[in-house]
């Protein structure tokens, strides 16, 4: 089924809700290609089998999950045997001498089964969550540690949908098990599947690279030389800009057709692999790639989601306690001139006043973050760091469109201009290319009396609600 922000989540069958708390259920995930029709458990070497999915009245489909309620006849830590019967009745596998524990996880795979007893939850240590803001803070902390399962104790009647619980984190998809419900409290366990960027950053920071799978190692290998070059930039903003432009330059936007890969939550285009290995990605892929590269370069980067004309993903960057937004997907849509590709930077460390013109999100998820409200010295167009070390430039801010066009005309006349990005307050008089070009020509003619055709082009992006206009002049 499809989640509210365009990410598919695994379907599941939750445990029945009781009137009082009991032992945690036994969690079951079917990772096999085939359906599983019987999961038999018996005290060790007794052959007294009980089918713990018998109340399904059918088989557990491939890709589905189930929570079998803890049975009164079971004893905690009892040594038991497990037998898995697939739909074809021939593919039967056994797992002997299992320690039966409330909250244990039985992972069923093709012709094999493994058991994880670490899922047992001490619910007394799980904080109560009674609002979206509390949930956002808790989940940001837990997913940041790359927890393989996350228990949540919902209180006061509050209960989030599964994908909303992990929204704006490094989780690509999540499986939910409702453990119990009594009164106004609901206990839920979430099993997240993380983006490659989140997995790799966690591994590098904790010296666990040896645990990365082959695909993640390939992504890390592609990322390392880019990060190495970024680290040579002298300032934090220049590091960030280098990574931004590197990502935009190495991959093209490719929307993912969810009907093509409805069961593939981590298709390569939706992850850093699409950017770093394949050269094509959707917004999730660009977001994951910037999280990976930025985090490895020492930036404080996060994941974010919201709505434009459709569901969308982008990043946050926190600098000196203020959180800004970076949307590499949209910044990719620039232009080509003389076979050179130029990028937009409108959404480079953008504050709320820029983002909220055409994006919206649930403000409750801002809990624990201080969002930058106005443009400041970290925004691409208003930073004092005009020059960048590799010859590129940040944008520049002029107090009026007249001032900006006059400055550009002077550079064009002196033939010093290759490309310039500048921002001015919104002025409807110069919101169109024709009127801006005519004004530049007037400035040049008034000083030289000569021909103002200096073979340049101009692009303007404006919106009255932005209160700003963004000019790019190049030749």
Give me some keywords for this one.
475 residues, alpha+beta, Immunoglobulin-like, 4-stranded mixed β-sheet, C8orf32 fold, 4-stranded antiparallel β-sheet, 4 domains, elongated, disordered N terminus
Short description:
The chain is of the alpha+beta class and 475 residues long. It contains eleven helices and 23 strands. The chain has helices at residues 132-144, 162-165, 196-205, 214-231, 236-250, 272-278, 283-296, 328-331, 352-355, 401-413, 433-448; strands at residues 26-30, 36-43, 50-51, 65-68, 78-86, 92-100, 105-109, 112-116, 128-129, 150-154, 171-182, 185-194, 252-253, 280-281, 301-307, 311-319, 322-326, 335-337, 340-342, 396-397, 419-425, 457-463, 468-474.
Describe this structure in words.
It is built from 11 helices and 23 strands. The model is unreliable at 1-20 and 258-263 (pLDDT under 50). The protein has 475 residues and is an alpha+beta fold. It has 4 domains: 26-119, Immunoglobulin-like (Sandwich), CATH 2.60.40; 123-194; 196-366, Roll (C8orf32 fold), CATH 3.10.620; 398-474, no CATH class. Helix 4 (214-231) packs across helix 6 (272-278), helix 6 (272-278) packs across helix 7 (283-296) and helix 10 (401-413) crosses helix 11. The two termini are 49 Å apart. The chain has helices spanning 132-144, 162-165, 196-205, 214-231, 236-250, 272-278, 283-296, 328-331, 352-355, 401-413, 433-448; strands at 26-30, 36-43, 50-51, 65-68, 78-86, 92-100, 105-109, 112-116, 128-129, 150-154, 171-182, 185-194, 252-253, 280-281, 301-307, 311-319, 322-326, 335-337, 340-342, 396-397, 419-425, 457-463, 468-474.
């Amino acid at each position: 089924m499809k989640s509210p922000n365009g990410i598919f989540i695994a379907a599941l069958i939750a445990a029945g809700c009781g009137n009082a708390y009991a032992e945690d259920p036994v969690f079951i995930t079917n990772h096999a290609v085939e359906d599983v029709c019987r999961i038999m458990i018996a005290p060790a070497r007794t052959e007294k089998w009980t089918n713990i999915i018998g109340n399904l009245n059918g088989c557990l489909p491939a890709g589905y999950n189930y929570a079998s309620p803890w049975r009164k006849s079971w004893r905690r830590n009892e040594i038991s045997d497990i037998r898995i019967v697939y739909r074809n009745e021939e593919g039967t596998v056994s797992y002997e001498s299992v320690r039966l524990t409330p909250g244990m996880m039985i992972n069923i795979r093709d012709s094999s089964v493994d058991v994880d007893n670490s899922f047992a939850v001490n619910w007394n240590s799980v904080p109560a969550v009674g609002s979206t803001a509390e949930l956002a803070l808790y989940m940001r902390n837990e997913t940041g540690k790359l927890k393989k399962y996350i228990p949540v104790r919902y209180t006061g009647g509050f209960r989030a949908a599964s994908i909303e619980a992990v929204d704006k984190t490094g989780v690509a998809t999540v499986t939910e098990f409702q453990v119990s419900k009594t009164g106004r409290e609901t206990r839920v366990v979430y099993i997240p599947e993380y983006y490659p960027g989140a997995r790799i950053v966690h591994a590098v920071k904790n010296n666990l690279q040896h645990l990365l799978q082959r695909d993640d190692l390939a992504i890390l290998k592609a990322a390392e030389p880019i990060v190495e070059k970024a680290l040579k930039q002298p300032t934090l903003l220049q590091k960030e800009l280098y990574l931004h432009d590197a990502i935009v330059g190495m991959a093209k936007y490719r929307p993912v057709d969810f009907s093509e890969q409805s069961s593939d939550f981590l298709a390569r285009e939706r992850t850093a692999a699409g950017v770093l290995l394949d050269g094509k990605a959707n917004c999730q892929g660009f977001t994951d790639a910037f999280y990976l590269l930025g985090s490895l370069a020492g930036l404080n980067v996060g994941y974010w989601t919201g709505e434009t004309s459709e569901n969308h993903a982008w990043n946050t960057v926190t600098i000196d306690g203020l959180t800004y937004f970076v949307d590499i997907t949209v910044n990719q849509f620039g232009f080509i001139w003389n076979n050179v590709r130029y990028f937009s930077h409108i959404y480079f460390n953008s504050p709320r006043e820029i983002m909220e013109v055409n994006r919206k999100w649930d403000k409750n998820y801002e809990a624990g973050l201080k969002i930058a409200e106005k443009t400041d010295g970290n925004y691409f167009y208003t930073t004092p760091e005009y020059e960048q070390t590799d010859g590129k430039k940040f944008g520049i801010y002029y107090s009026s469109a007249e001032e900006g066009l006059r400055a550009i005309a002077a550079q064009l006349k002196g033939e010093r201009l290759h490309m310039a990005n500048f921002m001015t307050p919104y002025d409807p008089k110069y919101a169109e290319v024709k009127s801006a070009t005519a004004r530049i020509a007037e400035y040049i003619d008034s000083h030289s009396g000569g021909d103002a055709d200096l073979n340049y082009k101009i692009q303007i992006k404006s919106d009255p609600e932005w209160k700003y206009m963004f000019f790019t002049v190049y030749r």
